[in-house]
Design goal:
There is one protein chain. With 66 residues, this protein is mostly helical. Helices cover 24% and strands 0% of the residues.
Length: 66
């Protein structure tokens, strides 16, 4: 993923301290995308969807704060 595609408020993936537990690299997704998917598809996050204002944004280019 190119750093040019990140939003101004996004974290730079090159500036991280690394992962706590080493994992093999995925061929199609970077670590941030994999972590995001783990959170969004977790049972705990899904329980919040209808109880609080949790918005799932399936479009990569738009913002949930529109």
């Amino acid at each position: 993923m190119s750093i040019l595609r990140l939003a101004a408020y996004a974290s730079d993936p090159r500036a991280t301290r690394g992962r706590r537990c080493a994992e093999p690299a995925a061929p199609t997704r970077d670590d941030f995308q994999r972590d995001r998917d783990r959170i969004v598809h977790s049972t705990a996050f899904r329980r919040l969807v209808y109880k609080t204002q949790v918005f799932l944004n399936h479009e990569e280019t738009s913002s949930a704060r529109a």
